[in-house]
């Protein structure tokens, strides 16, 4: 009965979704912080495209290799990459559109919170299943 794991592909997808949202939040925060910085080019990533690329790769290591005799469970996950806005004018103060950044921040926050809520509900189901099987 191979293939049964405690944490299935849904946990993996939600975990990577949280990673992508967290990274995007740091990009948007940097854009807002540098709204008055000359020569700054804002950066962002496409959430859906980045998540699809992250899911297409091999699953990340679930354990750290701390000894030479530990079994290697696969490569580390690929780092998430951002892209620079091509249409940004880095030589003027208005290279960052603060309205667009705030809109992106709200959208990203909603995705993060929704994914975190789904993860908590799945953990509640797992906790319920464990409690029922123990008595």
From TrEMBL:
Structural component of flagellum, the bacterial motility apparatus. Part of the rod structure of flagellar basal body. It is found in: Bacterial flagellum basal body. Belongs to the flagella basal body rod proteins family. This is Flagellar basal body rod protein FlgB. Coiled coil: none annotated. PROSITE patterns: FLAGELLA_BB_ROD. NCBIfam families: FlgB. InterPro entries: Flagellar_basal_body_rod_CS, FlgB. The keyword Phosphoprotein does not apply. It comes from Desulfobotulus pelophilus. Keywords: Bacterial flagellum, Cell projection, Cilium, Flagellum. The basal body constitutes a major portion of the flagellar organelle and consists of a number of rings mounted on a central rod. The keyword Acetylation does not apply.
């Amino acid at each position: 009965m191979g293939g049964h794991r405690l944490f299935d592909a849904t946990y993996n997808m939600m975990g990577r979704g949280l990673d992508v949202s967290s990274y995007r939040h740091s990009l948007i925060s940097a854009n807002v912080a540098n709204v008055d910085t000359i020569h700054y080019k804002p950066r962002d990533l496409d959430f859906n495209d980045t998540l699809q690329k992250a899911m297409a790769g091999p699953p990340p290591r679930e354990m750290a290799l701390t000894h030479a005799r530990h079994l290697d469970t696969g490569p580390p996950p690929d780092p998430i990459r951002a892209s620079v806005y091509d249409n940004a004018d880095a030589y003027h103060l208005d290279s960052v559109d603060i309205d667009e950044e705030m809109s992106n921040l709200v959208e990203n926050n909603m995705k993060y919170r929704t994914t975190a809520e789904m993860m908590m509900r799945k953990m509640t189901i797992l906790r319920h299943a464990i409690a029922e099987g123990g008595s």
